[in-house]
Design a protein that fits this description.
alpha+beta, 16 strands, four-stranded antiparallel beta sheet, Spore Coat Polysaccharide Biosynthesis Protein SpsA, Chain A, nine-stranded mixed beta sheet
């Protein structure tokens, strides 16, 4: 049974003048229910009382997506770290391609979802439909959580302009910072960001982020499923948010620890990619041109320096300069109108607050 299924067999029998509620251990029977009479395990409540909602029926505060990316031992390590440090009032959704058999019988704590493939982007897409909370955290295979790791990131989301928070990904053993999301530099697009604080543009990597559910839905609609490379998707998501006035922030105490095993690439904070260096430069520059315009922030001299001394390469530099070849495909694959603008979201929120205030005054 998944975590979304109620664990209480709640029987509700209504008489003409009475509500009869079967009591159970996890039913939140509040003191505010009014006068009751108990008989043989039942509570008889006056008819003007509405039964409280069991905790299993309530919308959670957080949904956590745990994608199973082929390595079962690493996936179970990630899942165990979440369950050991699980925040209050949260939903855990684990997505796999049908190969995982749940040997530890975690169905009462985790909702397992079968996705179309074991690729990260497909796992997140198919898990998303099962999330219900207003905030969604994605934590990829090989990353582990620690106590209270989400608290500071949730507080960041109280700012209306913040769409998402990029996790600080660190090496598990040494604590070395691998990324705080990504940023664009004069020498390279989608470079892992190493420093905290404000940047001209910051995005998140799809395997380590906290994001508003409504915006994640917009982004999944905006980027066609045919684009399934996680680096490309992470970059497209960040560009789409920036073009609509949203901010992505980082938080140092929002930390996930990445296994030091070589199967998890450090340079991309644990994300694997099928792109060659040249393809990476060409595709990301085409995404930038499609969403933000062709005036990318890179320069030839800086790209050459990054290729010779940094994380880039001559092939990636060459691909970045020849992005036009990929631009038609990006125009077909990315819908720039699917993401709600921050100003529009603020208006909707203001209207909702105004409506609620008016209802209170009328009452």
């Amino acid at each position: 049974m998944g975590s979304g299924a109620p664990s209480t067999n709640l029987r509700l029998l209504t008489c003409e003048r009475l509500n009869i509620v079967s009591l159970s251990s996890d039913f939140d029977f509040q003191a505010s229910t009014g006068p009751t009479t108990r008989l043989n395990g039942f509570a008889f409540v006056t008819s003007n009382w509405s039964p409280p909602v069991p905790t299993s029926f309530r919308t959670p505060r957080l949904s956590i997506i745990v994608p199973f990316q082929q390595d079962q031992a690493a996936f179970e390590e990630t899942l165990l770290s979440i369950l050991e440090n699980r925040p209050d009032d949260c939903q855990v959704v684990a997505a796999h391609n049908g190969a995982y058999q749940d040997p530890f019988d975690l169905g009462d704590e985790v909702e397992f979802v079968v996705a179309r493939s074991s690729r990260l982007t497909d796992l997140v897409r198919d898990a998303f439909d099962h999330t219900t909370a207003p905030l969604v955290h994605v934590i990829g295979t090989g990353c582990t959580a620690t106590e209270n790791w989400l608290d500071s990131a949730v507080r960041r989301m109280e700012k209306k302009q913040v769409a998402a928070v990029a996790a600080t990904v660190v090496k598990r053993d040494s604590g070395q910072v691998l990324s705080r999301g990504w940023t664009d530099t004069p020498g390279r697009l989608c470079q892992p960001a190493m420093l905290p604080g404000k940047l001209s543009r910051r995005g998140f990597f799809l395997n380590a982020c906290l994001i508003r559910r409504s915006l994640l839905g917009n982004l999944l609609d905006a980027v066609a499923p045919a684009i399934d490379d996680p680096i490309t998707v992470s970059y497209a998501f960040g560009c789409l948010l920036a073009s609509n006035g949203w901010r992505v922030e980082s938080e140092d105490s929002f930390r996930v620890k990445l296994s030091d095993q070589p199967r998890f690439p450090e340079e991309t904070a644990g994300l694997s990619t099928d792109l060659t260096s040249q393809d990476r430069g060409q595709v990301l520059a085409a995404v930038h041109a499609r969403v933000l315009g062709s005036d990318a922030s890179v320069s030839l001299l800086s790209m050459l320096s990054e290729a010779l001394l940094g994380h880039s390469s001559i092939g990636e530099m060459w691909g970045t300069m020849r992005y036009q070849a990929q631009l038609p495909a990006m125009r077909r694959a990315i819908d720039t109108l699917s993401v709600t603008h921050v100003d529009q979201a603020a208006k909707v929120l203001a209207m909702a607050i105004h409506s609620e205030t008016a209802q209170r005054r009328a009452a």
